[in-house]
Amino acid sequence: MHAMSTTASETLLRHWIGGRRDERAAERHGEVTDPATGEVVARVPFATRDDVDRAVRAAAEAAVAWGAASLTRRAQVMFAFRELVDRHKDELAALITREHGKVLSDARGEVTRGLEVVEFACGLGHLLKGEVTPQVSGGVDSHSLRMPLGVVAGITPFNFPVMVPLWMAPVALACGNAFILKPSEQDPSASLRMAELLAEAGLPDGVFSVVHGDKEAVDAILGHPGIAAVSFVGSTPVAQHIYETGTRHGKRVQALGGAKNHAVVLPDADLDLAADGLVSAAYGSAGQRCMAVSVAVAVGDVAEPLIDRIRERIDKLAIGPGTDPSSDMGPLVSERHHEKVAGLVEAGVDEGAELAVDGRDLVVDGHEGGYFLGPCVFDRVRPGMRVYDEEIFGPVLVVVRADSYPEALELVNANPYGNGAAIFTRDGGAARLFEQQATAGMIGVNVPIPVPMAYHSFGGWKGSLFGDLHMHGPDGVRFYTRGKVVTTRWPDPSQRGVNLGFPTQS
């Protein structure tokens, strides 16, 4: 955190309030670094309570007309936005890679998965249909409506600076709300570019805002009486704080937390398919995904051949800057996060886990200042070890050995997180049992990252979700609207007369 001017090589970012970049000077700034080099590439303003209030007032004024706009008008904006995001996909991916560090192909994939939700939101005419029941009583009809909430907010994480905002904002906007985004201060530039694209798509000024910042901005959002609902994705402790604080202030809250996703590998599994899936899911984006597989549960005698196959695949991975097309995996997002992950690897060694693959000595030529950590694999890990109990959020896969399917299932279900779980097997009966018995919100069968498509909803169980409704899909529409039921009777002389009894059907 700094209060200083930028250098010629840095970009000074701004809030986006009232349909334009905010030119007010900020009291505090944060540094945005290129994780591949450690160099500062931008400075981001940290919003005060007054900044948040200005965004809310602009949003509240704009929400009135936007909420009353025709479905056709809203759909036109969503369709135009979809085309603009697709046209600028490479530009958005480059912004992601510069500030997050993930490889460009991964960044493009993130934009694509976000686009799927924009496409889902383009169907708002169907999504917002109510229900009608004629003649519920003599001459009386009833129908239901889905109404916008007004001003809603999203607080999003560093690991998906485009996808997660696009999991929230398009659905909220299509439902007629104004949306305030508080992106991660570690990679905020893509959020501003999306604000510009929304404006170009025809979204009225004030309907979408971006306020940058840290805990002060978050607490201002949670306590502001003009914000009706808050969506959040991040770590479980922060998700619990967001949920408890937001609901205490009368807000509707969906807060998605952390994960410790398990993949059970049965003895009959295709081990090459399993190894491909585990390496892809554990080390994609350097393990900085809430849907990363971080625990492989090897059942029976499958551990040794599985680890051999994993090691073979790791040896072929190219680790380097995300801008290099030959790189398979980039750096961690920040120096502080690198220190945290490396510290957990050290703790695993100290606690007696077997470090089968050690990536701590990785050096990327020409990028010695970057936050690189090579893939790590622990074997013979047990519950109670920090590398098992804690969400590492880095390129670390731990292998736990189980004697049987029931023992493996018990490990999955005893874990306090419940985001996703997977099983690798050729046995349809075992797979069917697992999908019914595993206590996680998203299940993969021979699929290591079971992230649903946009027309299904994304969300976990247990410590991975605080709130009742999941994100995007049908649950997203329900979250960003509230129901209203209208009962109608038109004048009919035969129905007149005073009746003090409780109304009943007749």
Question: What do these coordinates show?
Answer:
The chain has 506 residues and is an alpha/beta fold. It folds into 2 domains: 11-257 and 464-485, Aldehyde Dehydrogenase, Chain A, domain 1 (3-Layer(aba) Sandwich), CATH 3.40.605; 261-445, Aldehyde Dehydrogenase, Chain A, domain 2 (3-Layer(aba) Sandwich), CATH 3.40.309. It is 38% helix and 21% strand. It is built from 16 helices and 23 strands. α1 (49-68) crosses α8 (215-223), α2 packs antiparallel against α4 (104-121) and α2 crosses α7 (189-200). The protein is globular.
In short:
With 506 residues, the protein is α/β, with parallel strands linked by helices. Helix content is 38%, strand content 21%.
Could you name the key traits of this structure?
506 residues; alpha/beta; Aldehyde Dehydrogenase, Chain A, domain 1; Aldehyde Dehydrogenase, Chain A, domain 2; 2 domains; 7-stranded mixed sheet; 6-stranded mixed sheet; 16 helices; 38% helix; 21% strand; disordered N terminus
Give the strand order, joined by hyphens, for the main sheet.
15-16-17-14-13-19-20
| Uncertain residue segments | 1-5
Which class do the helix and strand fractions yield?
A: alpha/beta
The CATH topology of the largest domain is given as Aldehyde Dehydrogenase, Chain A, domain 1
The residue fraction in helices comes out at 25-40%
Overall geometry comes to globular
CATH architecture of the largest domain: 3-Layer(aba) Sandwich
Count, helices = 16
Number of domains: 2
Mean pLDDT, as a whole number? 95
Oligomer: single chain
Q: What Rg do the Cα atoms give?
A: 25 Å
Task: Using the coordinates above, name the CATH class of the largest domain.
Answer: Alpha Beta
Query: Which band does the percent of strand residues land in?
Result: 15-25%
Q: How many beta-strand segments?
A: 23
Largest sheet: 7 strands, mixed
| Fourth CATH level, the homologous superfamily of the largest domain | Aldehyde Dehydrogenase, Chain A, domain 1
